[in-house]
TrEMBL record:
Residues 522-532 have a biased composition (Basic and acidic residues). Residues 522-543 are annotated as: Disordered. GO terms for cellular component: membrane. Keywords: Membrane, Signal, Transmembrane, Transmembrane helix. Residues 1-21 form the signal peptide. The keyword Transmembrane applies. This is Uncharacterized protein. It comes from Capsella rubella. The keyword Transmembrane helix applies. The chain crosses the membrane at residues 93-122, 143-164, 254-275, 282-305, 490-512.
C-alpha cells in the first residue's frame, strides 16, 4: 500500500486526467470536451480502449513499455519470467517488482531466525563461549572495544545517510507532486476560462444586435458539461494530492523514527556495554535484534519502490516517443484521434463566427449606411466605410483565409478607432465618423470575446491528442526521475549501513558487557619432584617458570 501510494506521486497525473475521473452514470462531461464520435463501443467504464492515429514512427502492434527493465521472476507464476512490460493494472507486474525486494526480506528472515536461536541458546541453556589466552586478556578486550566503536560509527553514518536521503527524497517527491497538481490546476483553469468566455459571449450586444438564441442554448449546455468536468477534476486532484501527502509524511516520519532510534540505540548500547550493565544490555540486544530485522524489511520495501519509480520513468520516456501506440497507458490516458472533432472547439468556433456575424451585421447594416435624419439607425454617420471583421472559419468550421479588405481579430480595434466620431449628448455625430464611442466600446467587447475564445479553446486540443500529457511526462522524466532515484539509493545505503553496523554491535555488546570474572589458573608444565633435602617438597628450579593462563568465559 505504501509503495503504491508513493509510486502514484510519479504517475498521479495519469489519474488526474483520466476519463474515469469525470464519468457520471448518466453522461460523460468530457464527451463534449474530447469529442464522442470515436468513443462508441470502444469505451468501457469511461476508459478509452481504442488506439490513436497511426503514424510512420508508431508501432503497429502493442508496445511493451520498459520491457527490458521489467523482465523479472514473477512470484505468481512460479518465478517464471514476467514479459508483460510496465503495467500498473497488472498484478503480475507488481509481483515481479515485489521480487526485487526479496534480498531485504530474506536477510530479515535469516537474521530473525539465526540470531533469535542464538539468543535462546544463550539465555535458556546458559551457553558460554570461553576464550583462553596466555598472559593478560587486555589486548583482546581492547580489540573488541575498538571494533565496537567502529561498528557504532558505521551505524551512526548510516543514520546520517538515512536522514539526509529521506529529507531529499521527501523534498523531491513533494516537488514532483506539486508540479503534477499545478498541471492539473492549469487544466481546470483552462476549462473555467472557456466557460467564462462562453458565458460572456451571451452578453454580446452591438446596438441591439445579439447572438442567435439557438447558439445561446448550445452555450448553456456546453457550460454545464465544462463546469462539471472542471469541478470533478479539481476535487479529484485535491483528494488524491491530500492522500499522497499523508503517505509521504507517514513514510518520512517512519524513516526519521528509525534513524533516531537506531542512533540512540547504538550509542546507549556502547555506553552500557562499557559500563557492564549486563541486564540492560540484554534488553537492548533484543530490541536491536527486532529493529535490525525492521531495517532489512525497509531495505526491501525501498528496493521495490526504487524499481517501480525507475520502471515508470522509463515507461513514460518510451511513451513520449510513441504517444499514440497501443500501450499500458492507452487504457488510462484519454488520448483520442487527433482528427476527431472536438465539440467544445467546434462550439467555440460557432460562437466566434456568431460574434463576428453580429459585428459585421452592425458594420454593413448600420455603420456603413447613410440614412436620412429620422430613419432607423441614424446618428449622422459619414466618411469612408468601415472595413468588416474577418470571419475566421467557413461553414465547415475550417480555418479560412481573410480577404484583403477584412480586419483580423488582433488589429480590428486599433483600425476602428479611426472611424470614431464625436457625439452630442443625444448620440448624434458632430464630426466625420462611422461609429459612436458607445458603439466602438461594444465592438471592442465583441472582438475581445472572439479573441479570448480563439486563444483559450485550442489548448483543449492538447488534452485531445495527448500533447499536454506528453509535455508533462517529458518534464517529469527530465527533471524529477533522476533526483528521486538518486535519493532512494541514498536511503537504501543508509538502511544498509544501519543494519550491518547495529548487527555487528549486538554481538560485541554481549561479549563486552559480559566481561567475565577472570579465573587465573597457575599451572606448572613440569611435574614436581619431592626432594628430601628440602623440607617443603617444592622444586624451586621450576617455580619461576610457572605459566599463568587467563580464562575468560562469556
Amino acid at each position: 500500500m505504501m509503495t503504491n501510494s508513493l509510486f502514484l506521486s510519479v504517475v498521479v497525473f495519469v489519474s488526474l486526467v483520466s476519463v474515469d475521473s469525470f464519468a457520471t452514470a448518466s453522461q460523460d462531461p468530457l464527451k463534449l470536451i474530447l469529442g464522442s464520435p470515436n468513443f462508441g463501443s470502444t469505451w468501457k467504464g469511461g476508459i478509452s480502449l481504442a488506439p490513436g492515429p497511426s503514424s510512420a514512427d508508431d508501432a503497429s502492434d502493442y508496445l511493451l513499455l520498459a520491457a527490458h527493465r521489467t523482465k523479472r521472476p514473477d512470484i505468481l507464476r512460479a518465478f517464471k519470467p514476467y514479459l508483460g512490460g510496465w503495467n500498473i493494472t497488472n498484478n503480475h507486474y507488481w509481483a515481479s517488482v515485489g521480487f526485487t525486494g526479496a534480498p531485504g526480506f530474506i536477510l530479515a528472515a535469516i537474521w530473525l531466525l539465526s540470531f533469535g536461536s542464538l539468543l535462546v541458546v544463550y539465555h535458556c541453556f546458559k551457553w558460554r563461549v570461553c576464550v583462553k589466552a596466555k598472559g593478560s586478556s587486555f589486548d583482546s578486550r581492547r580489540i573488541c572495544f575498538i571494533l565496537l566503536i567502529l561498528f557504532t560509527c558505521v551505524a551512526a553514518i548510516g543514520c546520517i545517510l538515512l536522514s539526509v536521503g529521506q529529507d531529499k527524497f521527501h523534498t523531491e517527491a513533494m516537488h514532483t507532486l506539486k508540479y503534477v497538481v499545478n498541471q492539473s490546476d492549469y487544466t481546470v483553469e483552462i476549462l473555467h476560462n472557456v466557460t467564462q468566455y462562453l458565458s460572456l459571449a451571451k452578453t454580446i450586444n452591438v446596438t441591439a444586435i445579439s447572438i442567435p438564441s439557438n447558439v445561446m442554448d448550445e452555450i448553456d449546455k456546453l457550460n454545464v458539461n465544462l463546469n462539471t468536468a472542471a469541478v470533478t477534476l479539481e476535487e479529484k486532484t485535491t483528494d488524491n494530492a491530500a492522500k499522497i501527502k499523508r503517505v509521504f509524511y507517514a513514510v518520512r516520519s517512519a524513516l526519521i523514527t528509525v534513524a533516531t532510534v537506531m542512533l540512540i540505540l547504538s550509542f546507549l548500547g556502547l555506553l552500557l556495554s562499557v559500563l557492564r550493565h549486563q541486564h540492560v544490555v540484554h534488553i537492548f540486544v533484543v530490541s536491536g535484534w527486532i529493529l535490525v530485522a525492521v531495517t532489512f524489511v525497509l531495505c526491501g520495501v525501498f528496493l521495490i519502490l526504487n524499481n517501480a519509480i525507475s520502471d515508470t520513468c522509463v515507461a513514460m520516456k518510451e511513451w513520449v516517443d510513441h504517444p499514440h501506440a497501443e500501450t499500458a497507458l492507452s487504457s488510462i490516458l484519454p488520448c483520442v484521434d487527433q482528427q476527431t472533432t472536438n465539440q467544445t472547439l467546434a462550439q467555440s468556433k460557432v460562437v466566434i463566427n456568431s460574434i463576428v456575424t453580429v459585428v459585421n451585421t452592425f458594420v454593413y447594416a448600420v455603420a456603413n449606411t447613410n440614412p436620412s435624419p429620422g430613419q432607423d439607425h441614424y446618428y449622422n454617420q459619414s466618411g469612408p466605410p468601415m472595413p468588416p471583421l474577418c470571419i475566421p472559419f467557413d461553414a465547415n468550421m475550417v480555418d479560412r483565409q481573410c480577404s484583403p479588405w477584412e480586419l483580423s481579430i488582433e488589429n480590428a480595434s486599433s483600425v476602428w478607432e479611426n472611424y470614431i466620431c464625436e457625439v452630442t449628448e443625444s448620440g448624434i455625430c458632430t464630426t466625420v465618423g462611422r461609429i459612436t464611442p458607445a458603439a466602438f466600446g461594444q465592438l471592442v467587447a465583441a472582438v475581445n470575446e472572439s479573441y479570448a475564445l480563439e486563444h483559450y479553446t485550442p489548448p483543449l486540443l492538447s488534452f485531445q491528442d495527448c500533447n499536454f500529457v506528453r509535455e508533462t511526462f517529458m518534464s517529469i522524466t527530465s527533471d524529477y526521475c533522476q533526483p528521486l532515484e538518486r535519493n532512494l539509493r541514498i536511503v537504501n545505503a543508509g538502511l544498509g549501513l544501519i543494519s550491518v553496523g547495529v548487527l555487528l554491535c549486538l554481538v560485541l555488546w554481549i561479549f563486552y558487557a559480559n566481561r567475565p570474572q577472570r579465573e587465573e589458573v597457575f599451572a606448572d608444565p613440569h611435574p614436581q619432584k619431592k626432594d628430601g633435602s628440602f623440607g617443603n617438597g617444592l622444586d624451586n628450579h621450576h617455580s619461576d617458570a610457572n605459566t599463568k593462563i587467563s580464562v575468560e568465559c562469556v
